[in-house]
Amino acid sequence: MxxxxxxxxxxxxxxxxVWGASFLxxxxxxxxxxxxxxxxxxxxxxxxxxxxxxxxxxxxxxxxDDGRNRWPYLVVVGLFSxxxxxxxxxxxxxxxxxxxAGVSMxxxxxxxxxxxxxxxxxxxVTPMKLLGLVIGFCGVLVLLGDGLMQSSGSAMEGWGRxxxxxxxxxxxxxxxxxxxxxxxxxxAMSAVVMIIAAGVGLPMAWAVEGPPPLPDHQTILxxxxxxxxxxAGANLLRILVIRSAGSTFMSLTxxxxxxxxxxxxxxxxxEALPAGLFVALGLILTGMALSQWSxxxxxxxxx
Length: 303
Description:
Helices cover 76% and strands 0% of the residues. The protein contains 13 helices and no strands. It starts with 5 loop residues before the first helix and ends with a helix. The radius of gyration is 19 Å and the shape is globular. By secondary structure, the chain is mainly α. The protein has helices at residues 6-29, 35-56, 71-92, 98-106, 108-119, 127-144, 157-180, 186-209, 217-245, 247-250, 253-269, 277-291, 293-302.
């Protein structure tokens, strides 16, 4: 059964901030590297760090020797949590507006909810949870504002939208699979899935964009940050949250990402903030609270 604690809330709020900042890093990195090689660089640096940490802690796989095979779960999570959605988004965002991509990612909680209801123990859909998720999604719509009505003008826009929605579906599948995986050391899981993702991503990037480009020093530093913090660190936090608090709770991160990406864009790049920023934030926070109302009552009841 999932257990949502104060630590769970701190981790999921941290994840929203970290992943929101990744859009800033991606925008800077794309000045010196192509999209698919950017995704592969993130996976490569993340795999290096997580593998080093895993081996330093003993390099074990099973948290319990119960005879169950973890590898099918690890392969699915490796493919659907990183490499496939990274590449789908990299391609899709060349044909759609950023608002379209943002709504697709904000739809992850609504996709996770029915999957978790049928395939995860203790994550049943309740009216309060559904209401909270819908209100949070409305907050994202307010945040993205007029951009939702804009067309990119690309002849491939329809396929771009499908790619972004497919990426959201990948994240939903990987979240539920992570939750249902038999007991496993979280450091092992985070390292192995990233090794799988980096291994699959390398030939994909080479096939689509040719040999890797030689980026400048600034781009390399940004790629290291994206790989070590936004990919490696965030992936470990993501696994810890899902394994303890559940995939539906973890999916609330996706409502925060558009908000933080706009805040960091304003602070660092001087981009204008939308007029409805605080209305949107209020809806997002209200939705998050309502969707986890039973856990919040237990949490504050203990305080």
